[in-house]
Amino acid sequence: MLSMRTAYVAVYETLADWEIGHLVVELRTGRFTGVPWTVVTVGESLEPVVTMGGMRIVPDVTIADVEPDAGDLLVLAGSGQWDNGGGDAFAKLAARFLDASVPVAAICGATAGLARAGLLDERKHTSAAKEYLQATGYQGVGNYVDERAVVGGDLITAGPDSPVQFARAVLQRLELADERKLDAYEGVFHRADPAAYATLVG
């Protein structure tokens, strides 16, 4: 029997829970892919954090416990910390994952944190807006793509208005579903197209 693949999900104060909700549910349940994953929450410490939506999360492990080669994905949501210049420890963790060729998925404010760390300079990416990332002083504006979600090698990025496209792009990068099923996924959860449901569950 194949061992379950592992997604590390970074958790911190004011985590934007809705941004990664679609993705984490599809990974953990495998309900449309047939491949359930283990989801492990990662904090700077084991102290509970409270999300933007007011949910209290107790991290499973700390950053110090995480080895990129023991995982298959790192997920970074937006939060107030990124816009306050924080999140360095998680940006460093992302750098370790990318150096090990393990995918990193970052949405909203997390993209700004990765931009400040220089991780977007050489990789295709997107975010809330080009100007948002330019405010970090990063050097990657030439690799900015004005799309809902972008796969740039091992890096998947999206803006805060695109949680469904973010989930779709990550599932695509992880090769968990073909284009037909991915389009049906976006059809159901973004376009509210009832006709897409049969393809999604088929």
From TrEMBL:
GO molecular function (one): transferase activity
Q: Short name of one Pfam family for this protein?
A: DJ-1_PfpI
| Alphabetical keyword list | Glutamine amidotransferase, Transferase
Enumerate the spans annotated as DJ-1/PfpI domain.
Answer: 6-172
Taxonomically, the superkingdom here is Bacteria
InterPro entries (UniProt xref): Class_I_gatase-like, DJ-1/PfpI, Prot/Nucl_acid_deglycase
A single GO cellular-component term from the record reads: cytoplasm
Q: Which spans are transmembrane here? A: none
Q: Which PANTHER family match?
A: DJ-1_PFPI DOMAIN-CONTAINING PROTEIN, PROTEIN/NUCLEIC ACID DEGLYCASE DJ-1-RELATED
**What's the protein here called?**
Glutamine amidotransferase
The organism named in the record is Kribbella jiaozuonensis
- Organism phylogeny: Bacteria, Bacillati, Actinomycetota, Actinomycetes, Propionibacteriales
